[in-house]
Every structure is written in structure tokens, then in C-alpha cells.
Design a protein that fits this description.
heterodimer, A: 328 residues, mainly alpha, two-stranded antiparallel sheet, 4 strands, B: 497 residues, alpha/beta, Rossmann fold, six-stranded mixed β-sheet, 34% helix, binds adenosine-5'-triphosphate, binds magnesium ion
Chain lengths: 328, 497
């Protein structure tokens, strides 16, 4: 049982490190912001209502990364879906129909990614980046780069309603439900285990009767669906489908997942850590806005944070890699 | 000056295991020392400490009177110590030459020249070993045996004082083993110090001068090879007599109707392969490296595409598209290469054992961790897998114990296997457990399972199998019963063109 304890200890250590990082981020922005406005209820409300977008994109790319894959098109896919959703509503389509149709479009883009990666055999990095570029272009073409208003009362209610003293947005509930769902799915089911096994050793998993291609399709389609949902919910919150939408947010998702312990190499990382990673990224992005940092510098800062997460992951992999190769 | 390597009071502990305790011994130049012991006895750990890969908790190693204090494997190499590890360390995408001479990247205009020179030097080395390997070929395209030979050449060209081999022959067949032994003798004549780890006792008597036996991390016996015998060695290693492995087997004599019928099977590698397997029968596959035995297994299992021919199970033609279909139809394949095709190294022993039976260990929608634990504990007991808990990450097990995890996976109680294919199942497994594995194979046959037993150890195939199929160059060159078979006959057929 000693090693079980050791494992728990390691897990806790990692969690503690993440929580400390979260506290540092919050403390730093509180001190730096004028009169501590970072922790002002109005801003906390803001943080909470933005969380759903980061959460969904983190979950989307997190599952794929565990399987040893990557999707860089989530931001562009979500943005395209956000504007298409707004256009459908504007065109008089009933909201449930528009919602389902848009989710299907997101999923179709995911399936296309999966085909490029699994059937054609392109590198996931390049393939999904190219798809992102196509989606981004289509976003501009869709309505000549003009924002499309969203007026449907049900949708705007979902996007903006808050319970409990204005603190608990409907979207936050969606984010939390999604996190719980994926945590259980990945941690306690046959499907989740298969994803980890494929990420750990694809050929061994295949020879043990697991279908790597099938699971890769499911994960890419899932990623497309979550991206579309993120775009829809942002449009609902802003009451408008815009060409900037959730664009470039795929990097926030990746950073959150990696901070949370999901490795680029695949096969490792749990969603408990990823949740905190997501809180850190979300708090970080909002903090920069509160401080009035220009969006150009925000991009720089996000890049630096991603580099930081990559470095941590690289050092971990190097340590592990060394141990793998010398095992005997 | 005569070379001398000495270990003094070496200690090493891992969480839950004392891997080495108070190890003291010395070896002189021009001697080959065998390091023996059961799986998990601490052999590889000792070599890793010597090569600077691990740090001892206590104790010192001295080479030629100087204390060695390495902080990295590079220090050890510079000090004249080379270790050929049990698990290969090559970069599959790089060429043979680049792997033999790492750290000399042939790039740019000058690099082109350097690249040619590298290739020539590699070719010289390959010729010296008498092998037919293309120095420009990516290592990943070579057979496991040739990869091992590349590993050996890589260490050889460093011209170290101390060369340690950790189970070098596990993936090799007799042809390459002969080359290797020849090389060891040459190194010995040059006055080098050689450490040799192997579970094949016959090899110990062929190439070594002295023997050190480890048991549970302690040094339990030291002797001269010429003054001991196989039974005494086994007693020192296992702590008891195990008798004659093969004569003591409780075999199955009820061989039933035809279970598997392969006719005129062809793939990229295979040419017109036909054979049958009956219920309760053990069919052994013998042959040299590259003979196509693994390919037969993979083709039946749906792991590789079949171009023509017929496979029938219980009279019904089958052509599995994926391993999943094969498993569902009752075919299990325990693969040859545990690192590439077998294990998920960063997952626990439990996760590795239950891989093919996940659908059967569910309660409702969720995996039943309790049931998984039970199945794994059963496998750990049957194969005497040395691990403190089933949660231990497989990577932290010793090489032989990793192999036992794969065996445990493919023979777990939840598998409903009709046809069990074992590809080099005893690779890296110690003598005591080997006998148990043989008995288990016979027991499976006794339950009416048809077993295909692929092995490069001739003695093993010839003695375990009811029928022996010999292959060469992708074809079946002969078939005989155990009663008819001798090692000489099998070998002759294995070399037949
Ligand atoms: N990195 C590690 N972390 C934890 N335990 C380890 C590690 N490396 C080795 N061990 C443990 O130390 C013990 C000795 O392992 P070692 O690899 O030296 O055995 P071995 O004698 O080489 O066995 P084999 O014949 O199976 O190769 C084993 O119980 C193993 O589980
Ligand atoms: Mg070992």
C-alpha cells in the first residue's frame, strides 16, 4: 500500500502547487488593480460568466491531448458557429433548431479534422491549424465581417441570467456540469480509460482490442461540439455573434489543460488539476482586462503563460522519458 | 596495469522495495562475470548504479583503485564504463550509423562529408560483426534482433574498460548469439572487464568465468563457473530445487478436433503458410529471426492485413479486420515486443492487466475497480509478479516482471480464449517462473484451448510443443511431432532456403 500512498502524496503535492499558483494569480491582480477592484463582486460576476467558454474549450482539447492528439481549431470553429447561430436566429429559425443545427456544424468540422488526421494521415498540428484558417475565413465571409445581433429571449436568458444575488450565472452552471460530466467520463468509464491507454501506447491499446481511430473520431467530434457550444454561449451572453468571438481561445484551453497536468505526450493528467488550471487561466485573462492591458499585450502575456506551461510539461516529459528509456 | 572493478557496500531502496543491500564483490580484467538472480533481484539496478543512471543510497564503486562518482551516464562513459541495457535505447527514426555514433549530426555542406564518413565507419563496424545491415536504414525498420546488435555495436565502438550486458540475448536467435559470444571472447582477450546478465543458464556456462547470485537484493552466492552446475545455480537463485523442467510437466493428452485451420496464407512477408491447430494442442513455431513467425500470429489476429489465403476457426472462415474482432472471437495474442506493443508503461499494473477485458469489469456504466483489483491480484499471484501493490506503475517493475504483466493480461480469468498465441512469452523470465509458465501453458491445453507457442529458444519449443512448425523466409519449411523432433532437425529446417 506504500506506493498507493506515495501516489496520493504526489497527487496532492501537484494540487497544492496549482492552488498556490491560483492564489498567487488572484493576489497579484488584487494588489495591482485599482482599490482591489479585481475582487469586487462586479468583477467576480464577470469572471464567473466568462468561465463557460474557457471551460468548454479546455475540456475539448484536454480529452484530445490525453489521447495523444491536439486540436488547434476550437477557437475558430466556435467563432464560426457563434456567428452562424446568430444568423440562423436572425433568419427566423426557432432556437432549438438553430442550436442543434449549429452544434452539428461544429461536430462536422470535428469529424473533418478526425478524417484529416486518421484517414489522410496529416499531422494533427498542421491539419487543425489549416482547418482553423478556413473556419476563420468563413467567419468573415458569413456576414461580411459585421456582427449579427441575437434577440431570442430564451437564448439571451441563458447567456445573461444570474441566480443568487446576481452571482451564479446560468452559464457557470453549464460549465460546472460539463466539468463534472467529463471528470466522471474520463476517470470512471471504459471510454475514459481507453482514451488514456491510447495516449499511453496506441499500438498496445489497439492490440488489446481498443479502436484508436474510432475513439479519435469521437474525441474530435466532441471537440467540435464543445467549441460550437462555447461560441453559441458567448454569442448569447454578448447578445451578438461577432467575428472575434472565441477566436484564439484554443490557446487558453491548451494552457489550462497543461497547467492542470495534461501532457503533450498523451496518456496522463486528471480533470481535477485541469479544473484549477482553467480557473488560473480564466483569472489571468480577466485580470489583464481589469488592469487595462491592451489586447496586444494580452496576447503577449497569454503566449508567455503558454510557454511557461510548455516548459513545465517538457521538463516533466524529459524526466519521464529518461526513466522510460533506462527501464530494465 | 590489470583492470579491476570493485563494489563495496552498495545499498539502494525504492518506495516499498529494498532493491540492493550491502553488495560487495570484485571483478578483474579479462574475466567475464555473470550476474544472476530471479526477476526483481536487483541486477539491472546494480548496473544502473554503475553507469551513473541511478545513485546508490550508500557504498562505493572503484575502477582500477579510483572511486567512481558519477552524476550522469555521460560521466560513466567517459570513465570507461558502458552498459547495454535490457530495454533498447535507440532512436527508431534515425539511421543505424547515426545511432551507433550519436551526437555527431551530419548537417550542412560539411555535414554531408561527415555523413558519408559516418556511414563508412558504421559499415566497417558492421562488417567486423559479420552482419548484413544497411548503415543508412532507419533503426525502426530493423528486426528486434538487429536492433539489439546495433545497441551492442554502439557500446563496442566506445572501447570502454568495463562493458556490461543486461540480458543481451533475450531477443536474439542462435546466429546472432554466436556472433555476440565471439565478440565477448575477443573483448576478454583484450583484458576488458565484462558483466553479463542472463536468464539462460546454458549461456552462463558458455561465456562466463565467475558468477555472483543476487536474491531479493542481497548477494547470496559467489562462485567460479567451472566449479558449479546448473542445479546448484538454480538452488542458489530460487532457494529450492525445481527438478527437470520438461520431464516434470503435467501434459495434456486429450487433443481434440480441429480448431484453427490456416491455408495458403499470404501477406507482405508470408508465402503460402498452412497449418492446423487442434483443441488442446500446443503448436510451436521455430525459426530464425525474420522467419515470419510473428507475422503469422499478427495476420491471424487481425493486426496486419492478409492478402490471400484462408483462416478457419471451428470450420468457419474468418478474416478479422481488427484485433478487437479477433479477441471477441476468442483469439488472444501476447505480443513479442513488450515495450512497443505490450505495455502502457505509465499506467498501473492493474490498468495494464485489464486492457482487453474492460467491457467485462463494469458495474452499470462505470468500471468496477474492485473487480479489476481482484483479477489483477490473481495474475500477480499466479506469475509471482514482484510488485508492492497493483497500483504500481509498470515502468517501475523489473524487466521480467513487466513480461509477467503481459502474460497476466492475456491469460486473466475474464478472458474467454479459445486460441492463445504466445509470441516469445518467456523472454526475460527467470528459471523458476519459466517452469510455472510451461505448466500453465499445458494447463491451458488441458482446458481445451489451442496454443500457438512462438519462441527463439529451440530447447523450449522442441520440449513444450505437441507439433513443431518450422519457418524460414516467410514459408513453412517443415512440420513434425515432439516425438520426431530434435534440435538439430529443427535447426536444419530453420536454415533451409
Ligand atoms: N525506478 C524504480 N522505481 C521503483 N522501483 C524500482 C525502480 N527500478 C527498479 N525497482 C524495483 O527494484 C527491484 C529490482 O529491480 P531490477 O530491475 O534491478 O531487477 P532485475 O534483477 O534486473 O530483474 P529482471 O530479471 O526482471 O530484469 C524490483 O523490485 C523493482 O520493482
Ligand atoms: Mg533487469
Amino acid at each position: 500500500m506504500e506506493s498507493a500512498k506515495g501516489f496520493k502524496k504526489f497527487f496532492n503535492e501537484k494540487m497544492v502547487t496549482l492552488l498556490v499558483l491560483l492564489v498567487i494569480v488572484v493576489a497579484a491582480f488584487t494588489v495591482l488593480s485599482k482599490n482591489g477592484s479585481y475582487l469586487h463582486p462586479a468583477n467576480i460576476r464577470n469572471i464567473f460568466s466568462l468561465m463557460v467558454v474557457t471551460s468548454l474549450l479546455t475540456l475539448a482539447v484536454g480529452c484530445l491531448m490525453i489521447s495523444g492528439n491536439i486540436d488547434l481549431s476550437t477557437g475558430a470553429n466556435g467563432t464560426l458557429c457563434g456567428i452562424l447561430f446568430a444568423l440562423l436566429l436572425q433568419g427566423g429559425v426557432a432556437w432549438p433548431v438553430a442550436l442543434i443545427a449549429t452544434l452539428l456544424i461544429g461536430m462536422a468540422i470535428g469529424a473533418f479534422n478526425a478524417t484529416l488526421v486518421n484517414i489522410v494521415g496529416f499531422q494533427p498540428f498542421i491539419a487543425t491549424m489549416a482547418v482553423a484558417s478556413v473556419a476563420k475565413g468563413l467567419t468573415y465571409v458569413a456576414n461580411n465581417a459585421v456582427a449579427v445581433p441575437v434577440k431570442d429571449p430564451v437564448i439571451t436568458w441563458i447567456g445573461t441570467e444570474r441566480f443568487f444575488n446576481n452571482l451564479l450565472p446560468v452559464t457557470l452552471i453549464i460549465a460546472i456540469v460539463a466539468f463534472v460530466f467529463y471528470t466522471v467520463l474520463m476517470g470512471a468509464t471504459e471510454f475514459g480509460r481507453s482514451v488514456y491507454l491510447i495516449g499511453g501506447n496506441r499500438e498496445a491499446a489497439r492490440l488489446s482490442g481498443i479502436h484508436p481511430v474510432k475513439i479519435s473520431y469521437i474525441l474530435f467530434i466532441n471537440s467540435g461540439m464543445l467549441s460550437a457550444l462555447a461560441g453559441i454561449l458567448l454569442a448569447a451572453r454578448l447578445k451578438s455573434g461577432t467575428v472575434t468571438g472565441v477566436v484564439n481561445m484554443q490557446f487558453s484551453g491548451m494552457t489550462a489543460a497543461m497547467l492542470g497536468g495534461v501532457s503533450f505526450g498523451g496518456g496522463s493528467g486528471g480533470f481535477g488539476g485541469v479544473f484549477i488550471g482553467m480557473l488560473i487561466i480564466n483569472g489571468f485573462n480577466n485580470g489583464l482586462t481589469v488592469l487595462g492591458v491592451s489586447s496586444y499585450w494580452q496576447t503577449v502575456a497569454s503566449g508567455v503563460l503558454l510557454l511557461f506551461a510548455l516548459t513545465v510539461d517538457y521538463l516533466n516529459m524529459k524526466r519521464r522519458g529518461k526513466r522510460v528509456s533506462k527501464r530494465g | 596495469m590489470e583492470r579491476c572493478l570493485e563494489f563495496k557496500g552498495i545499498e539502494k531502496a525504492f518506495p516499498g522495495v529494498r532493491a540492493l543491500q550491502d553488495i560487495n564483490f570484485r571483478v578483474k580484467g579479462g574475466r567475464v562475470l555473470a550476474l544472476l538472480g530471479e526477476n526483481g533481484a536487483g541486477k539491472s539496478t546494480l548496473l544502473k548504479i554503475m553507469s551513473g543512471d541511478l545513485r546508490a543510497d550508500a557504498g562505493t564503486i572503484t575502477l582500477n583503485g579510483r572511486e567512481m562518482n558519477f552524476s550522469s551516464p555521460n560521466d560513466a562513459i567517459r570513465a570507461g564504463i558502458s552498459v547495454i541495457y535490457q530495454e533498447r535505447q535507440l532512436v527508431p527514426a534515425m539511421s543505424v550509423a547515426e545511432n551507433i555514433f550519436p551526437g555527431i549530426p551530419p548537417r550542412g555542406a560539411l555535414g554531408l562529408v561527415a555523413g558519408k564518413q559516418l556511414k563508412r565507419q558504421a559499415q566497417e563496424l558492421i562488417d567486423k560483426f559479420g552482419l548484413s545491415i544497411d548503415p543508412a536504414a532507419p533503426v525502426g525498420t530493423l528486426s528486434v534482433a538487429y536492433q539489439q546488435m546495433v545497441e551492442i555495436m554502439k557500446a563496442y565502438r566506445r572501447d570502454s574498460d568495463v562493458i556490461a550486458f543486461d540480458e543481451p540475448t533475450a531477443p536474439l536467435t542462435d546466429a546472432e548469439i554466436a556472433i555476440l559470444f565471439d565478440l565477448i571472447r575477443r573483448l576478454k582477450e583484450a583484458g576488458k572487464i565484462i558483466l553479463y546478465v542472463s536468464h539462460r543458464l546454458s549461456e552462463i556456462f558458455q561465456v562466463t568465468d565467475e558468477i555472483v547470485v543476487l536474491k531479493d537484493g542481497r548477494l547470496v552466492a559467489e562462485m567460479k563457473t567451472s566449479e558449479t552446475g546448473e542445479q546448484e545455480l538454480i538452488r542458489a537463485m530460487v532457494g529450492r530445487d525445481i527438478g527437470d523442467t520438461y520431464a516434470g510437466l503435467n501434459r495434456n493428452d486429450k487433443i481434440g478436433e480441429v480448431l484453427l485451420e490456416v491455408s495458403h496464407l499470404e501477406t507482405d512477408v508470408l508465402r503460402d503458410v498452412s497449418f492446423t491447430l487442434r483443441r488442446g494442442e500446443i503448436v510451436g513455431f521455430a525459426g530464425l529471426v525474420g522467419a515470419g513467425r510473428t507475422e503469422v500470429a499478427r495476420a491471424i489476429f487481425g493486426a496486419d492485413p492478409v492478402s490471400s489465403g484462408e483462416i478457419k476457426i471451428e470450420g468457419k472462415p474468418v478474416r478479422f479486420k481488427t484485433p478487437k474482432d479477433a479477441i471477441d472471437a476468442g483469439v488472444a495474442l501476447c505480443p513479442e515486443d513488450r515495450k512497443e506493443q505490450g505495455l502502457v508503461l505509465f499506467r498501473s499494473v492493474r490498468d495494464n492487466v485489464t486492457m482487453p477485458i474492460l467491457a467485462k469489469v463494469k458495474r452499470g456504466l462505470f468500471l468496477d475497480n474492485h473487480a479489476e483489483d481482484e483479477i489483477t491480484i490473481d495474475a500477480v499471484k499466479r506469475y509471482a509478479i514482484k510488485t508492492p501493490t497493483v497500483d504500481k506503475i509498470v515502468m517501475e517493475l523489473s524487466g521480467g516482471n513487466q513480461q509477467k504483466v503481459i502474460l497476466g493480461r492475456w491469460t486473466s480469468s475474464k478472458m474467454t480464449t479459445k486460441i492463445l498465441i504466445l509470441d516469445e512469452p518467456t523472454k526475460g523470465i527467470d528459471v523458476g517462473t519459466k517452469a510455472e509458465v510451461y505448466q500453465m501453458v499445458c494447463d491451458f491445453a488441458g482446458q481445451g484451448i489451442g496454443v500457438i507457442f512462438i519462441s527463439s529458444e529451440l530447447t523450449e519449443v522442441v520440449n513444450i510443443s505437441d507439433t513443431i512448425v518450422v519457418m524460414h523466409g516467410g514459408r513453412v519449411t517443415g512440420q513434425m511431432t515432439r516425438q520426431e523432433a530434435t534440435e538439430e532437425k529443427v535447426l536444419a529446417l530453420a536454415m533451409l532456403d
